[in-house]
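Help needed: design a sequence for this.
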């Protein structure tokens, strides 16, 4: 326990390390091939070609056409754009939007803003593992429903939504289907045609690409409105000089992710199961949130009853272990996680929950060390916990 360890990074759902080979590919587009892709001379044509090759590569990973990929500044922008675009383009047909109770704030807060603008939003419930209730979703559909937006995988508990079924329901009812695939793209395969996805958001820094770059896929047959007004970039829909190094880096990371996807999935799933099994077996009063199997390969979300999550995270930090409490801060003074609330976790457990997310560079030795640290910290906290003492007083 006392031996010193290097940093153990278990927060890959927050962001990932940019691969060295990705950075190497980007470098040329800062220092040598720095032309503006909209300029007409040959030198700039090289930037334009790199950008269009990146667009084609990304389209191929989804079974999409290159014209259907729009570069953005990341997942938040893609989500904002998707919802706003549908509200503008289809607002005259209807003003009803369906989403789920466990979306990322990028969707939740955009939907909230659309409500202020006169849209009606239904937030469909999820079950105790975080799966959207499909019968409730179907029942929520109305004549004026213009959009269903449900995330592909949850950022806190890793639950993989039945996007194939959701896509089928949306298509049958002639409703646009958007999915926030920020956590899933690059981890698991997605085919927009197989799943009837009309719009999809992704972000490079979640799959070992650079921060501040992402894309929005929009099916050719779905009209899309301008998000940022200005020049004619991105087919006049998203103005502003494109972030060529970022785009090149995102495509490079997407290529690597798709090449190594299956191998990575198997390795991370094995490690995750090993880690979860050890924790549940060796640490009393621990509980896994989300489905045991239908979750992101690297996602571990555990409640340690009688332990305060913010104190646990601080103690882990002191040992060089980076973990998080999900998207919302878990200190008692702030709001509890809406995802954990939606799966029906009692408040005391919500404030005892941490998220640890693995990557392909996570090792079994690191996880063994983390289990030992968790054991030690949780038993220390419980010894000092009045709640724990009361529970066992006789
Ligand atoms: N959607 C989901 C599901 C996410 O997990 C995140 C980031 O945590 C985002 C959207 C926002 O992405 P970005 O950080 O690229 O703005």
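Sure. Designed sequence:
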């Amino acid at each position: 326990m006392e031996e010193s360890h290097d940093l153990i990074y278990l927060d890959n759902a927050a962001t990932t390390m940019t691969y060295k080979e990705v950075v190497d590919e980007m470098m040329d587009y800062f220092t040598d091939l720095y032309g503006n892709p909209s300029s007409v001379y040959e030198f700039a044509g090289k930037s334009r070609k790199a950008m269009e090759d990146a667009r084609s590569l990304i389209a191929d990973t989804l079974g999409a056409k290159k014209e259907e990929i729009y570069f953005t500044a990341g997942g938040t922008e893609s989500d904002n754009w998707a919802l706003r675009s549908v509200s503008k383009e289809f607002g005259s047909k209807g003003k009803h939007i369906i989403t789920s109770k466990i979306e990322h704030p990028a969707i939740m807060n955009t939907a909230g803003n659309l409500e202020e603008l006169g849209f009606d939003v239904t937030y469909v419930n999820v079950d105790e593992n975080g799966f959207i209730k499909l019968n409730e979703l179907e029942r929520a559909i109305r004549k004026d429903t213009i959009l269903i937006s449900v995330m592909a995988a949850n950022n806190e508990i890793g639950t993989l939504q039945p996007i194939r079924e959701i896509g089928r329901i949306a298509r049958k009812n002639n409703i646009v289907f958007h999915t926030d695939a920020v956590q899933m793209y690059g981890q698991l395969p997605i085919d927009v045609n197989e799943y009837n996805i009309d719009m999809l958001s992704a972000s490079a820094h979640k799959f070992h690409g650079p921060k501040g770059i992402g894309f929005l896929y929009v099916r050719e047959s779905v009209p899309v409105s301008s998000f940022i007004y200005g020049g004619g970039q991105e087919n006049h829909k998203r103005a502003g000089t494109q972030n060529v190094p970022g785009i090149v880096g995102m495509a490079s990371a997407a290529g690597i992710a798709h090449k190594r996807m299956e191998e990575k999935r198997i390795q991370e799933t094995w490690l995750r199961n090993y880690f979860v099994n050890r924790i549940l077996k060796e640490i009393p009063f621990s509980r896994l949130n989300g489905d045991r199997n239908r979750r992101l390969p690297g996602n571990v979300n555990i409640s340690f009853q009688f332990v305060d999550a913010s104190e646990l995270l601080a103690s882990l930090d002191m040992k060089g272990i980076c973990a998080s409490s999900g998207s919302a801060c878990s200190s008692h003074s702030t709001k509890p996680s809406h995802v954990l609330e939606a799966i029906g976790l009692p408040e005391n457990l919500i404030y005892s929950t941490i998220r640890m997310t693995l990557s392909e560079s996570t090792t079994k030795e690191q996880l063994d060390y983390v289990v030992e640290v968790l054991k030690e910290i949780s038993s220390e906290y419980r010894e000092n916990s009045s709640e724990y003492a009361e529970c066992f007083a006789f």
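The longest helix spans residues 244-282.
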